[in-house]
Write a structure and sequence with these properties.
Layout lengths: L13 E7 L6 H14 L7 E7 L6 H7 L3 E4 L5 H11 L4 E4 L10 H10 L3 E5 L2 E3 L4 H17 L6 E4 H7 L10 H16 L2 E3 L6 E3 L2 H6 L3 H15 L1 H13 L3
Parallel strand pairs: 1-2, 1-4, 2-3, 5-8, 6-9
Antiparallel strand pairs: 4-7, 5-7
Helix pairs in contact: 9-10
Length: 252
């Protein structure tokens, strides 16, 4: 990568890291919602930087990101954990936020996160999501996942944590093709136990999750395929890796 955090200085508070591989179609939509959320932030839009971690895209992802005001860092290792870590390495903010390129953020995202962190009780959190469309299969999948969200306190959407805590746990594990976000939040949760803080799920700023995986594979597929993949991770890791690459990395 050409740039490093040591080269930079600013008063940026939030750094939003967006891992992106061939996201020319949906990335502009996300960046437009982030622009609105930046404008709504009471601390000032200049306190928020947007970083697109271009994960070896072969389309116009990088050019579009720059046109829409994001900084772009090229990350050659094709792995979402590596892309997130690559974006974090050049980030200037005290708080790191991670959001997938196919999502859309709530207009009050940064106000809600800032208010949550000011209370001093959170080591990390996630805004949660709502699906961009619903069907019986998607509702059933959502319902199956909710108990784990309630039990663990882990969620998705805009995932955020102080930079110091991100660095203390070493960022995202780059030896995992999937569930790296679960491992990441688990590590932060453990650190929180030692420092008197916890994972939080603030209300009022849920992101909108893309339904494109359901569009491609069917509205019921996730209900059955993901539990199977978790078991294969333990029983047949080589097969699990092949299936994970096909599902998350070779789909576009």
């Amino acid at each position: 990568m050409r740039s490093s955090r040591a080269d930079l200085s600013s008063d940026v508070y939030f750094s939003v890291v967006i891992p992106a591989y061939n996201e020319a179609e949906l990335l502009p939509r996300l960046l437009r919602t982030l622009r609105e959320a930046r404008q709504n932030y009471t601390g000032g839009a200049d306190q928020i930087e947007l970083i697109v971690a271009d994960n070896a895209s072969t389309d116009a992802t990088a050019a579009l990101a720059e046109q829409l005001g994001a900084r772009v860092v090229r990350v050659e290792k094709r792995m979402i954990a590596a892309a997130r870590n690559g974006g974090a390495r050049v980030a200037r903010g005290d708080v790191l936020c991670f959001i997938d390129a196919d999502m859309q953020v709530h207009p009050q995202t940064f106000n809600v996160i800032a208010q949550t962190l000011r209370r001093g009780k959170a080591i990390a959190g996630a805004t949660g999501v709502v699906s961009e469309r619903w069907s019986p299969g998607i509702v059933a999948t959502w319902a199956a996942m909710l108990p784990m969200v309630w039990l663990t306190g882990m969620d998705t959407g805009v995932v955020f944590c102080p930079r110091a805590d991100f660095e203390a746990i070493g960022g995202y594990r780059e030896d995992r093709l999937f569930a790296e976000d679960v491992v990441f939040l688990t590590a932060l949760k453990r650190r929180g136990w030692r420092t008197g803080r916890r994972l939080v799920r603030p209300r009022g700023a849920r992101a909108i999750a893309s339904a494109r995986k359901f569009d491609r594979h069917g509205d019921w597929h996730m209900l059955f395929s993901l539990p199977s993949l978790v078991w294969k991770q333990w029983l047949a890791p080589a097969r699990a890796e092949r299936e994970a690459r096909a599902y998350w990395y070779e789909g576009r």
